[in-house]
Amino acid sequence: MVRISEDLIRRRAEHNNGEIFSLEEVSLHQQDIERIEHIDKWCRDLKILYLQSNLIPKIENVGRLKKLEYLNLALNNIEVIENLEGCESLQKLDLTVNFVGKLSSVESLKQNLHLRELYLVGNPCAEFHGYRQYVVACLPQLRWLDGKEIGRSERIQALQELDAVRSRVLEQEADYTEKREEQKRSGLKETTEKQEDPQINQLLSESQNGTHQNPESSSKAHTDAEDKEKEFWEKPCPFTPESRLETHRHLEDKRRAKEKKREKPKNKTLRTLINADGRVLNINEPKLDFSLTEDENNCMLLDLHVYRHMDTSLLDVDVQPTYVRVTVKEKVFQLVLPAEVKPDSSTAQRSQTTGHLLLFLPLARGEIKPKKPTARPTTVNSNQNTKNETRPAPGRELLEVDPGLAGSLANIVPKGKESSHKPLQLSQPHQRCGVEERPVSKDFVDDPEVPPLM
Q1: For the chain, does the N or the C end have fewer beta carbons within 10 angstroms?
Q2: Residue closest to 40 by CA, chosen among 71, 79, 76, 78
Q3: Chain Cα centroid distance, residue 412
Q4: Is 56 buried (19+), middle (13-18) or exposed (0-12) by CB count in 10 A?
Q5: Confidence category of residue 387, pLDDT binned at 50, 70, 90
Q6: CA angle, corner 371, sides to 452 and 323, nearest 5?
Q7: Dist CA 67 CA 196 (whole Å)
Q8: Is residue 325 left, alpha or beta, with left meaning phi > 0 and alpha meaning psi from -120 to 50?
Q9: How many CB atoms lie within 10 A of CB 204?
């Protein structure tokens, strides 16, 4: 049962900054309210009150609303028009599709002198012969009935035939009252039988708890539940407050069963993301495509193909040195990285066109990749015994000598002995790159630490 609370009214009074004492209009429709209460004490300045589409069986606790001009009680379970004498400013009353069968109770509205519009369409009393003439004659201040204007000639004729119309209305009202009592007794009997039926109770308990003994019993129970559901909606029943309440409770039970079924996955065992031995697992529960690449700046790029129109608030990214974990709508995507990364320097971006999630993961070994060294030729100056780097001339191929073989090549000529072959001397000195080369003297001794000339 939903009660009218101060918090409910305050939430409905957002346009009034949450203040309820000075509230002039409040809408409490479709709240499954079963009783009118507290409104006449908390909202004394109320002018418009919407209470349609609820489960209210009786008009009560509105007599203190002296400024109330419009009261909407359509689609409720009201059977009698009463307790509205104190609403001195009431101008419009809407009781569409209720269960008002006592048409004579409309005479209680005579004291509402400002009442101009009344709606009783969809009520059992609207089917009575002479219904409109009776209401028009009983309420001389009324101008509109069920959306149709009351003419002067219609009012005069209704006043002239009031006695005959009243007698017919009272007879129909008595018949309806007897019929209504029979409906109450039959409805109470059906409710008692349903509560005592063990099969129905077992089906209800199994559907709510979601527990069955075996798959066969589970499928059988599911079939029985579908049959009961089909039988419930196809079974003919009278249009009464009890049938409306039964329908509401049936829908409420189904809603609660669905909520319990949704809550069950939260209670299941936790998924295994890391083994007992500490090994991280690769997991792709959302079944998303992805690509992992490495760029030139020692940075790995993870492109995760997230759903394009999904809100970013449903994503949770966790970067660790050896793996990445992304939670997509409570589903885990976990990937083990081939190299260690820096979590503090990692960043995440979301594409506005494709919706993909791009993670930048800097590698832990360095920010810049080292380039491969290139070998360059050297020239030796015999006088200074130093190495000077020179660029190779275009179109020439130079022979490179392994530094480890320099000593062995230098020992080809033994130290301290004269060789039969004299060193080669040039007939005429020539310039090479602007420097004149000198002939080698006889006192020259080959140093093993210096590589040979090329």
Answers
A1: N
A2: 71
A3: 85
A4: buried
A5: very low
A6: 145
A7: 50
A8: beta
A9: 16
Least confident among 70-84, 226-240, 328-342 = 226-240
Contact predicate 361/299, CB 8 Å = yes
- Nearest Cα to Cα of residue 285 among 301, 303, 308, 304: 304
Q: What is the pLDDT of residues 305-351, one digit of tens each?
A: 998 888 888 899 999 999 999 999 888 999 999 989 999 989 999 98
What pLDDT, in 10s, does the model give residues 264-303?
555 555 678 888 888 888 999 889 999 999 888 888 999 9
Give the max Cα distance, the chain: 160
Q: Could you give the CA distance from residue 287 to residue 208 in angstroms, rounded to a whole number? A: 32
Cβ contact 301:295 at 8 Å: yes
Q: Identify the burial level of 402 via C-beta atoms within 10 angstroms of its C-beta, where 0-12 means exposed, 13-18 middle and 19 or more buried.
A: exposed
**Cα distance between residue 203 and residue 206, in whole Å:** 5
Q: Give residues with Cβ within 8 angstroms of 225, minimum separation 6.
A: 203, 207
Per the listing, tokens 């009431």 go with: 90
- Residue 89 belongs to what H/E stretch? none
Spatial CA neighbour of 91 closest among 40, 153, 48, 148: 48
The 3-class SS string of 278-335 reads CCECCEECCCCCEEEEECCCCEEEEEECCCCCCCHHHEEEEECCCEEEEEECCEEEEE
3-class DSSP state for residue 423? Answer: coil
Q: With contact defined as beta carbons under 8 Å apart, do 332 and 273 qualify?
A: yes
Report the SS3 class of residue 276. Answer: coil
pLDDT cut 70: percent of the chain above it: 71
- Nearest Cα neighbor of 70 from 50, 100, 48, 97 is 48
Closest Cα partner for 428 from 420, 419, 438, 417? 438
Which value, in Å, is the radius of gyration of the alpha carbons in the chain? 48
Angle at 196 between CA 193 and CA 202, to 5 degrees: 120
